[in-house]
Amino acid sequence: MAMLTRPLGDVHYDLSGSGPAITLIHGVGSYLESWDGVVERLGPDYQYLRYDLRGHGGSQKVPGPYALSDFVADLRDLMDHLQIGSTVLAGFSLGGLIAQAFSLAHPERVEKLILISTVAGRTPAERERVARRARTLAEKGAGAHLTEAVERWFTDAFIAEHPEVLEARRQRSLQNDPACYAAAYRVLASSDLADRLAEIRVPTLVMTGENDIGSTPRMARLIAERVAKGQLHILPRLKHSILLEAPDQVANEIRPFLKLD
Q1: pTM value?
Q2: What is the per-residue DSSP string for 147-177?
Q3: Which of 2, 59, 157, 260 matches a 20 to 30 Å C-alpha distance to 151?
Q4: In order of start, what are the domains of the chain with their CATH numbers?
């Protein structure tokens, strides 16, 4: 683990392995280690860059409000610092929005794009639901938000069989600075790049859980259809937190995509 120190806020990151670069962006309220299971299953043939988003984990608790462009600048500066010219870019949830925005702002630096459980083209009803969740988080804190979120994130079977995973996720979320967590969630709730997806020209793998009600199969299908070179995979039965519940399935979809010319 290391730290990039800069006026815009320190960025905590982990760079491991050797080979073609893959950069992995976690979701709101999460942390770079959420990719552990996927990285382990993808194996040692790549150089993995993971980092904590601003206000999360070991990165600086930069005061909000945040904009999507702030997260893009953070990633650009980190890649510059590490002299990574271009990368396969993967993002989960809010990380997927950041990956979309980075690809639009810096297309020459993205070789392939992997968008997992992310959003585009929300309906008015979907926009209202996520705005309501953002208000709950801002007004009542992470505890109330997480109580509502567990059943949206994980299948009933996983909740029953792996309470330790849920508790670890809960504790890590509660460690987030409340104001930073709320500021990042507002970016997730208010950002939508559906109208610009056709500008993304690199091969793009899109996946989500069949029963994800926040990052729905309809949204995933829209993304895959609008980008120039989209592939779509809907993972049966799963909900939102597929990095934690099903890293083997996620890795199984990513592995052949990485090998495509």
Answers
A1: 0.96
A2: HHHHHHHS-HHHHHH-HHHHHHHHHHHHTS-
A3: 59
A4: 2-259 (3.40.50.1820)
